[in-house]
Amino acid sequence: MTTFKSLGLNAPLVKAVEKLGFEAPTEVQSKVIPLLLNDKTDLVALAQTGTGKTAAFGFPMLQHIDLGIKKTQGLILSPTRELCLQITNEMEQYGREMKQINIVAIYGGANITEQAKKIKRGAHIVVATPGRLKDMIRRKLVDISSINFCVLDEADEMLNMGFYEDIKSILTHTPEKKSSWLFSATMPPEVNTIAKKFMNSPKEITVGTKNAGTKNVDHQYFIVAGRERYTALRAVVGMNPNIFGCVFCRTKIETQKVAEKLIQDGHKAAAIHGDLSQNQRDAVMQSFRKKKIQLLIATDVAARGIDVDDITHVINYQLPDEIETYTHRSGRTGRAGKLGTSIIFVTKSDRRKIRLIENKLQTKLTELEMPSAQEIFKNKVQHWIEEIKNTPVKSELQPYFADTHKGLEELDKETLVELLLSKEFRNFDVYPKSLSFDQEKNSERRSDKKINAPKDKDRFFINLGARDQYEWATLKDFIRSYLKLGMDDVFQVEVMKNFSFFSTHKKHRDLVLRSFENLNLDSRKISVELTKKGKTFSPSKKKKKSNYGVKSKKRFK
Ligand code: AMP
């Protein structure tokens, strides 16, 4: 059997491994550790988070550090503060038997002077986010001119987040003669460019299939109408009472809405998105990690750096534009040898995206039938039965058993069971109307244009459309709730592929134009304009450039 010792790790590191309880090296560790210990080489490793990649580069870097030299010898760049702290923590664990090793994390949103002080004391290894590091280099608070090793961790994420220029500038402050190790879950062309431009004939190592979701993930999808997404989510949660999941939405507003609905329905849920402060995000993440929250509703941007093992389900409330993003999302489950499920809610018209994912992942996605309300309830009862059977008897309650037996003595077993079940589900709507999918079929209409509307109305253009996963009903809901208007105040909503039209009473004109003035949805400016009388707005006359994604990325479309 391959052991960490047989890979070439020295005694203090092997001791740390034993204390950490790692039994055997993971695949990426077996491939990468001997290479980085013995060859002075550059490396491109394709491996997802959760494969043990931090240790794969961390152990060799630690072993190469000369503790007698106070200068910074190793640099690890990571996309987010969250990940930066996690890597630092892991590295400290791995180096725990190396007395005097000093590993310092530097990242934005925290006191720069404090971080500079720590660096000044002598940091053998610096773990940094690109923005803060660049800032500290500029202020001469950190010196990376003598590093021997540079790791670009989650390189695809860093580039997705727009750190290309920062990375380029940081690398100009590092010596030519160093080893660069790049780790990435996927290999989009941008990462390839980095490898070509900044690395010296790197060796390439792939764990699992290139660009594929982990093999431990079961990919499934439900065909739903746009308005049924929430109902579908409830059904999935209902069928999986022990779910510990991440639900991905496309916009901040949607994450908020979904989280609120779940909370109203009695689930432990929270939203995480870019409008939360760093402290709020940390608090949400901490609750999630401690499993005080069962469902985390996130945008892709906010979810970067979420690194939580044990996620049972990833739910794609809406599909992202880019296939890579889907790979990232689904890679958050099925970690550390466990099985995970990635579920997609897809509308009939977007069904072709399923084929594209299948091609990309080289795997078949399973189409599932939505369970009926009865099936869901049956499943809940089954779960409850299992829970009762598995509840350990609490010995402290011993003194009260006799009284309880006596108090319930007149009930036979059957009655007792019926009463307990009724008590457990007393507040539960056993036949919820909203679980009947057929009721909402008319939501598949493209517009509510035929609805009678007042004469003195204004008609508006909005640059959101079917490609943003909107249908007339969901767009109407969004506009109405965003403007805080009543049910009938927004009407004649007509959804096209890239844009839509809607009408309001003239008295709301200022409110509409003002409210949308500064609205950005996931860094994209939402624009609303009054259409000219009698004419509809022609988008071809005023070409709008979409800010979605990176230009060269493959789209689903
Ligand atoms: P990473 O892919 O580096 O984010 O690692 C994911 C998790 O796996 C971390 O919590 C590590 O502590 C843990 N880990 C790393 N290597 C091993 C190993 N060989 N055996 C068991 N757990 C490991």
Write the layout of secondary structure elements.
Layout: H1 11-20, H2 27-38, E1 43-46, H3 53-64, E2 74-77, H4 81-94, E3 103-106, H5 112-120, E4 125-128, H6 130-138, E5 149-152, H7 155-160, H8 164-171, E6 179-184, H9 189-198, E7 203-206, E8 217-223, H10 229-239, E9 245-248, H11 252-264, E10 269-272, H12 278-289, E11 295-298, H13 300-303, E12 313-316, H14 323-330, E13 340-346, H15 352-361, E14 366-367, H16 373-389, H17 398-407, H18 413-424, E15 457-462, H19 472-483, E16 490-495, E17 500-505, H20 509-515, E18 520-521, E19 524-525, E20 528-530
Parallel strand pairs: 1-6, 1-7, 2-4, 2-5, 3-4, 5-6, 8-13, 8-14, 9-11, 9-12, 10-11, 12-13
Antiparallel strand pairs: 15-17, 15-20, 16-17, 18-19
Overview of the molecule:
There is one protein chain. With 557 residues, this protein is α/β, with parallel strands linked by helices. The chain has four domains: 5-206, P-loop containing nucleotide triphosphate hydrolases (Rossmann fold), CATH 3.40.50.300; 217-370, Rossmann fold (3-Layer(aba) Sandwich); 374-433, no CATH class; 445-557, RRM (RNA recognition motif) domain (Alpha-Beta Plaits), CATH 3.30.70.330. It is 37% helix and 16% strand. The protein has helices spanning 11-20, 27-38, 53-64, 81-94, 112-120, 130-138, 155-160, 164-171, 189-198, 229-239, 252-264, 278-289, 300-303, 323-330, 352-361, 373-389, 398-407, 413-424, 472-483, 509-515; strands at 43-46, 74-77, 103-106, 125-128, 149-152, 179-184, 203-206, 217-223, 245-248, 269-272, 295-298, 313-316, 340-346, 366-367, 457-462, 490-495, 500-505, 520-521, 524-525, 528-530. The strands form four sheets. The chain has a seven-stranded parallel sheet, with helices on both faces. Helix 2 (27-38) packs parallel to helix 3 (53-64) and helix 6 packs across helix 8. Bound molecules: adenosine monophosphate. Adenosine monophosphate (AMP) binds at residues 22, 25-26, 29, 49-55, 90, 307, 336.
